[in-house]
Write a structure and sequence with these properties.
The chain has 489 residues and is mainly α. The chain has 22 helices and no strands.
Length: 489
Amino acid sequence: MWGRPREASSMYKRLPSRDCTSVVDMEEDSALLQNGMSPETSNPSWRLSLPHVLVAIISSFLFGYHIGVVNEPLESISVDLGFRGNTLAEGLVVSTCLGGAFIGSLLSGWIADGVGRRRAFQLSALPMIVGASMSAMTNNLAGMLLGRLFVGTGMGLGPPVAALYVTEISPAFVRGTYGSFIQIATCLGLMGALFIGIPVKAIAGGWRLCFGVSIIPAAVLAIAMVFCAESPHWLYKRGRTEEAEAEFEKLLGGSHVKFAMAELSKSDKGDDTDTVGLSELLYGRHFRVVFIGSTLFALQQLSGINAIFYFSSTVFKSAGVPSNLANVFIGIANLTGSIIAMVLMDKLGRKMLLLWSFFGMAMSMALQVTAASSYMSGSGALYLSVGGMLSFVFTFAVGAGPVPGLLLPEIFPSRIRANAMAICMSVHWVINFFVGLLFLRLLEQLGPRLLYSIFGTFCLMAVVFVKRNVVETKGKSLQEIEIALLPQE
């Protein structure tokens, strides 16, 4: 998995346009490609970049943890804070966090480009520490909601920055594997919230511990980032070439620095320091890649995955499975699929995993529709429904879950990468919010057969969209991908 030779790097005719770069530099770069500095002869050690990736994905662990932290103790929280039986208040405890996440994701690109990736991680940890402390110590609903809003802001900021950072510091031959770590960390966060929430649910006031323990990984993230490398791509974009070289040496080893810098110069067009306007992303020459990214995240959410996560316990209860056990089954299916994705990401490629993942999700929804039909009844329908749900989560985790967060930073040009990710993640959170808000009402009005059929149709639409619009990025450097997709002026 680690040592697979990378595909040959192609040579490009586009000249770098930085004033400080000359034709002599290009000749030196060409010599480097011929004299052993190219990944054609050797790959950089994955061990150098791995510690930096592991620190970065703490933000993804926190994301998963805070998504699931209120699931088990919500009833105890409502009793202690005086809103038991108020379904609106219970919904606000969940949805306020999603609202904060939308705000955080919307600002993530400008923060990551403005202060750098490392400081952006630290800024994402700060509101999670403050918000978790407020939620753990509050004695009223208002304090809980304010704490969840703070936590949500950090949640929204962290994942886009993690996707950017992991993509930019990873060697090309393991970038897919490292990108899968983000999804695995999210799964572990969800399961961590479950395993802490189940035992403390029976303890008076034990729910406060669920929020309090999350302060520890958030503090570790903020402190450990001091010792991690800054993204060389961000430093180079800011004109800090010597610092970029020093960070490449930490991440790749000294023998690969000159080649990595030569690669960076090939995609540079001399305008990286210009401000990226919203109109350029939505209407300008980068509209197509932003449209692809936003549509992928939209289809991911319209597949119904979060509705399944939010309301799976209802289906399992009807089959006689306790909600605690149901959540464990969902978590295991999610984690197993994510591990398989990690193994296959740099072997089969991003596009192949996306195609088969969305197709498998459509087939799983077909099982759900069959279970809800009049032709099935009794225990057979219940077991088919449970099987379809587990299959849906598993096939999601193999491709549709981890791939968009990895693929989009790969296809976005360096200049717009952070801001484009912010827009796409904002689309993700908006649709996530409305799917969660409307799912139960639509289930009542449309019935499970029609609603699951709609979800399955979106999955098939995703298959067609991926087939027509998504390019394969496996084994290619970010500069190769950028030059291949660069719009011509």
